[in-house]
Amino acid sequence: MPDPNAAPRAQEIEDIYRDLTRGLGHERVDDRNVFDLIRRAEEDGRKVLAQELREWQAPCDPDKSDTSARAPGVDAESKRH
Q1: Cβ of 38: how many Cβ atoms within 10 Å?
Q2: Which of 11, 63, 67, 68 has its CA 20 to 30 A from that of 78?
Q3: 76 Cβ neighbours under 8 A, 6+ residues apart
């Protein structure tokens, strides 16, 4: 039985991808769509975009459990002091 959400999801991926190729839409990338977006960028020969997406999804430091970098109001400068 076909997935009724497949077509809308494919269209959403395409919309986000189109925005990314224009330098927009980064806020729309999430854990649910990043691998589809990487695959789409690779299919289109956009190596830099595919690499940026891989870096987005990769953990910063898998050995550290520090999540303060994601906390609102905490930036790299304030963490040094």
Answers
A1: 19
A2: 63
A3: 69
DSSP per-residue string spanning 33-70: THHHHHHHHHHTT-HHHHHHHHHHHS-S-TT----GGG
18: its two tokens: 């189109």
Please, how many CA atoms are within 13 Å of residue 65, restricted to the half-sphere of its CB? 0
Q: What percent of the chain has pLDDT over 70?
A: 68
Residues of the chain with pLDDT under 50: 65-81
CA dist., res. 61 & res. 72, Å (int)? 19
CA-to-CA separations, 29 to 23, 67, 79, 81, in angstroms, rounded: 13, 19, 26, 31
pLDDT one-digit tens code per residue, 54-71:
999 887 765 654 443 433
pTM for this entry: 0.67
